[in-house]
Specification:
This protein is an alpha/beta fold and about 675 residues long. The protein has five domains: about 1-195, Rossmann fold (3-Layer(aba) Sandwich), CATH 3.40.50.300; about 205-330 and about 370-395, P-loop containing nucleotide triphosphate hydrolases (Rossmann fold); about 400-500, Winged helix-like DNA-binding domain superfamily/Winged helix DNA-binding domain (Arc Repressor Mutant, subunit A, Orthogonal Bundle); about 525-595, Orthogonal Bundle (DNA polymerase, domain 1); about 610-675. Helices cover about 45% and strands about 10% of the residues. Helix 2 runs parallel beside helix 3, helix 28 (about 610-625) packs across helix 29 (about 640-645) and helix 30 (about 650-660) packs across helix 31.
Length: about 675
């Protein structure tokens, strides 16, 4: 792993891999068929970009969105990597540049959409290009149940077989059914080496709130984070438009996005979101897959997502740079009915609908959790965790009560009515409300009629909602949503287990203000660094994070590097970016333009050779006229000193071969003293 580690530092500017990356990089670099399930924002792209630089030939990357491909190509180009994309959005000049790089043998990564695989000439092109690896981004798109399913993804497995090259597939979807289908369709059923990495994103603050004037709740959340990029997810297209208009009226840069818009309008929003700092996009789930913007600081759900997997994917678009990010999810009875109806009216078979109701129940369980939300979320994915201290329940634990008797009453009502009715009818029975429907079925004569008068109707709604959250009951899709008891409920019904429930409290304490990214002392410098980044990004017409992500600017603001060597040690500052931007950001930090060293010295910045070079320069200055100070001046060029500093020979013969006889006579012994101490 020496070469990947060296490239990680020199090209991408990182000293260490993120958890789980190194093993995946090693497998892909070695040419093993690989399936990596890693959390959204866990650094999946690096796991195929870095092996592409280590391997001979071209790596072809199958990616779902043109905007994502273009942004990755830009970012790689900024880091000094030759990459290109063949998409329908290319200009003629862009396409010509890709083919020129292919012909010259310099292209390392070639991005394309799966639809391009339908072209008869694509396989011939890839053979001629010398493709040695296929990487598949967002690999869950091969799943027949995925809402992003595109049939051309099914051609990838045949392409792998035809080219006879290894394939690496990447996804953040943890569902076992989806993983099995990826293996079947991409790897012909032959199990690849599989990495299932932890799903914790500790930098993301988790929070849920019951709906209580939901538009006001979203507006207040956005107002506390003004100037930060965010996404608001809504359940309907109409709501995206009205809420975006409300945010814009309140002075936020905001726009809407949904699948009903014209393709050109959607592309405009995608490009604007990638480039602009502080833009809010109000969207349906049509927006987000493939979004590679690392500095999204918050995600809000104005409506409950469709499942716990969808929730995880959507909040995972925040804080991909590792800096603090926040989420807020609103939920109410109408959301739950809407999501249940979506499942029941879908075309999936009954067993799939039942599983989908179970997934929605898991999300309700997270919404109604009694303790740390992160423990509940990771528990769903099979991971144990300690309370995080970074969610709303860790900060403000809810008021709870022993709900065992109430749940027993509700379960009794379900069973005595033949598991044939929904929550509304059951609550009428429990509170003793003799509606026409209750009387017509004789349910006013049941022993359970009126046994729940100690709770009002709203409290009973909370009980049933939490019973679903604990997966004690599920709607039956074949019986119009009638509630059926699960096996998990039987111990409670028999009195063998207790259950704690939350008080059905709507009024909540005011949400705290947005978390600061840096201390109050460093905030002005961070703002100045962001302003310089924005100016550079606008001049080059690239997204701001392509220059540097927020995380890198935060480290600059806190560490305040005052030399190029110190700047090179900031995470995310690779050699190419140090060369291109180091001086201009140092100027912001120091308040004055720094002295710019010779290019040969700049290339050594931040490395062990930098200090050696500086000591060689000092030694040369002392001996320029010899030990006596009376000899004819003699010196080495900056490029020659850089070669010595990099090679660091410690034997006279090796040093003489670098310097030549004359310079070795003048500087050799003193240089060797420096080199041996290094």
């Amino acid at each position: 792993m020496d070469e990947p580690r060296a490239l990680l530092a020199s090209v991408f500017g990182f000293d260490e891999f993120r958890p789980g990356q190194e093993e995946v990089v090693a497998a892909v670099t070695a040419g093993r068929n690989t399936l990596a399930i890693m959390p959204t924002g866990g650094g999946k792209s690096l796991c195929y970009q870095l092996p592409a630089l280590c391997r001979a030939g071209v790596t072809v990357v199958i990616s779902p969105l043109i905007a994502l491909m273009r942004d990755q190509v830009r970012a790689l180009s900024e880091a000094g990597v030759v990459a290109g994309a063949l998409t329908s959005g290319n200009t003629e000049a862009e396409t010509e540049a890709v083919f020129a790089a292919l012909d010259a043998g310099t292209l390392k990564l070639l991005y394309m959409a799966p639809e391009r695989l339908a072209s008869a000439g694509t396989e011939r092109l890839l053979r001629r290009a010398g493709v040695s690896l296929i990487a598949v981004d967002e690999a869950h798109c091969v799943s027949q149940w995925g809402h992003d399913f595109r049939p051309d993804y099914l051609r990838i497995g045949a392409l792998r077989a035809a080219l006879g090259v290894p394939l690496a597939a990447f996804t953040a979807t943890a569902d076992e059914e989806t993983r099995a289908e990826i293996v079947a369709r991409l790897f012909a059923g032959e199990a690849p080496v599989t990495f299932l990495r932890g799903f914790d994103r500790p930098n993301i603050h988790l929070a849920f709130e019951p709906k209580n004037k939901p538009r006001d709740q979203i507006m207040a959340f956005a107002a506390a984070r003004k100037g930060q990029s965010g996404i608001v997810y809504c359940g309907t297209r109409a709501k995206t438009e009205s809420l975006a208009a409300a945010l814009a009226s309140a002075g936020h840069p905001a726009c809407h996005y949904h699948a009903g818009m014209e393709p050109e309008a959607r592309r405009g929003v995608e490009e604007r979101f990638q480039r602009e700092d502080g833009l809010i996009v109000v969207a349906t789930v049509a927006f987000g897959m493939g979004i590679d913007k690392p500095d999204i600081r918050w995600v809000a759900h104005a409506d409950l997502p469709k499942s716990i997997e969808a929730y995880y994917q959507e909040i995972g678009r925040a804080g991909r740079d590792g800096a603090p990010a926040e989420t807020l999810t609103l939920y109410g009875a109408d959301d739950i009915r809407y999501r249940r109806t979506q499942i029941d009216e879908g075309l999936a078979p009954p067993e799939r609908k039942s599983a989908d109701h179970g997934r929605l129940n898991a999300l309700l369980g997270l919404a109604e959790a009694l303790a740390c939300r992160r423990v509940a979320l990771l528990g769903y994915f099979g991971e144990a965790a300690e309370p995080c201290g970074n969610c709303d329940l860790c900060a403000r634990p809810p008021e709870t009560y022993d709900g065992s008797v109430a749940v027993q009453k509700a379960l009794s009502a379900i069973l005595r009515t033949g598991e044939s009715f929904g929550a509304g009818h059951l609550i009428d029975i429990l509170v003793g409300n003799a509606t026409d429907k209750v009387r017509a079925r004789g349910h006013d004569q049941l022993p359970t009629f009126g046994v729940g008068q100690d709770l009002d109707k709203r409290a009973w709604q909370g009980v049933f909602r939490q019973m679903m959250g604990h997966d004690l009951v599920r709607p039956d899709p074949e019986r119009h949503g009638a509630l059926r008891m699960t096996e998990a409920a039987r111990p409670i019904l028999r009195g063998e287990a207790d259950i704690q429930l939350r008080r059905n409290v709507i009024t909540r304490a005011a949400r705290p203000a947005a978390k600061a990214l840096v201390s109050e002392e460093d905030a002005p410098l961070l703002a100045a660094l962001k302003a310089r980044r924005r100016a550079l990004a606008e001049a080059q017409r690239v997204p701001a994070y392509v220059i540097f992500p927020d995380r890198t600017l935060i480290e600059m603001a806190e560490a305040r590097p005052d030399t190029l060597d110190a700047m090179a040690r900031v995470s995310g500052v690779g050699a190419k970016k140090l060369e291109r931007y180091g001086a201009t950001f140092l100027e912001v930090i120091r308040g004055e333009a720094p002295e710019i060293p010779h290019p040969a010295r700049r290339k050594l910045a931040g490395g062990a050779g930098a200090e050696v070079y500086d000591r060689l320069v000092e030694t040369q200055a002392r001996l320029e006229r010899g030990e006596t100070g009376l000899e004819k001046p003699l010196s080495c060029s900056a490029a020659l000193l850089a070669r010595v500093a990099e090679a660091r020979p410690t034997e006279p013969g090796a040093l003489t071969r670098l310097l030549g006889e004359r310079r070795a006579d003048r500087f050799g012994p003193a240089f060797l003293d420096v080199l041996r101490e290094a």
